[in-house]
């Protein structure tokens, strides 16, 4: 017998052995299913067998459970990140609304103070809002959103609820320019509210102070005195607050006082102002 015949016989034997084992296991399985279904002989072995198999099944399922938990963790992380992003957007929007509300509240407060001041005045007024500031650091001129169409004219007094702001110098149909009392080109006759001593308030280019001239050094003037409009220029009505005296020194001549005063209108914070329209104060004595 040659090698080819021997190899064929060995292959047939192995094939027969594999088929026999398959048939044997099938018959054994059928028998076990029959016994399990019809009798209770396998109940106890099955109980212990399941106890043995249970840890093995947990070990076998561990990779799948690990992957599922990883997927769940990643999904939850994505959801949390998305929720955090949404909450941050809402927080930003609410902060923006809160800031707007604060700005509106402050504006309403200022407007109420202006209206209260307007109701105490003996003259007609126009409420205007500051919309631009002159970029020249040596000129203190602002632009208002009211003009000739609203009845504004040149050389009208402008004030807020705290005091004199300035006066209109040029007018267009829908806007007007106002020179502040701190502008170097502006002068205003004033008097000490306490005793009526008169002087001239001159702008010096500093937004938080003005200089008072034409007052003798030995006159009864004190730090803290309120300066008001005297009305002698026939432009500003008498008695409106202008500034409070800050310092008093003697000038180079030795006869006149060099007085520095702080404007009461807080010119670095103005937003809304009142424009006094022509009327009763045109006929000042």
UniProtKB/TrEMBL annotation:
Record's GO cellular component terms: plasma membrane
Keywords: Cell shape, Membrane, Transmembrane, Transmembrane helix
Residue spans crossing the bilayer: 16-35
GO biological process, one term: regulation of cell shape
NCBIfam families in the record: mreC (TIGR00219)
Protein name: Cell shape-determining protein MreC
Family recorded in the similarity comment: Belongs to the MreC family.
Protein role: Involved in formation and maintenance of cell shape.
Residue stretches making up the Rod shape-determining protein MreC beta-barrel core domain: 131-276
InterPro entries (alphabetical): Cell/Rod_1, Cell/Rod_MreC_2, MreC, MreC_beta-barrel_core
């Amino acid at each position: 017998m040659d090698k080819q015949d021997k190899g064929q016989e060995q292959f047939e034997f192995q094939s027969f052995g594999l088929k026999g084992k398959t048939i044997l296991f099938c018959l054994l399985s059928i028998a076990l299913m029959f016994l399990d279904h019809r009798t209770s002989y396998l109940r106890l072995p099955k109980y212990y067998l399941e106890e043995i198999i249970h840890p093995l099944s947990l070990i076998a399922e561990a990779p799948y459970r690990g992957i599922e938990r990883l997927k769940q963790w990643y999904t939850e992380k994505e959801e949390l990140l998305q929720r955090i992003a949404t909450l941050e957007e809402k927080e930003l929007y609410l902060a923006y609304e809160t800031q707007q509300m604060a700005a509106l509240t402050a504006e309403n407060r200022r407007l109420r103070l202006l209206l209260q001041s307007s109701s105490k005045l003996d003259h007609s007024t126009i409420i205007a809002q500051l919309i631009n500031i002159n970029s020249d650091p040596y000129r203190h001129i602002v632009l208002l959103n009211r003009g000739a169409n609203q009845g504004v004219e040149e050389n009208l007094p402008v004030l807020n609820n705290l005091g004199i702001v300035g006066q209109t110098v040029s007018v267009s149909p829908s806007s007007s320019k106002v020179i502040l009392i701190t502008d170097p080109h502006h002068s205003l006759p004033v008097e000490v509210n306490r005793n009526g001593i008169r002087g001239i308030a001159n702008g010096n280019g500093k937004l938080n102070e003005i200089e008072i001239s034409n007052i003798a050094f030995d006159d009864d003037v004190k730090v803290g005195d309120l300066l008001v409009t005297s009305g002698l220029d026939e432009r500003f009505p008498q008695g409106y607050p202008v500034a409070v005296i800050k310092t008093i020194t003697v000038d180079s001549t030795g006869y006149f006082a060099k007085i520095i005063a702080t404007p009461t209108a807080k010119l670095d914070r103005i937003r809304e102002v009142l424009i006094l329209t022509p009327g009763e104060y045109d006929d000042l004595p």
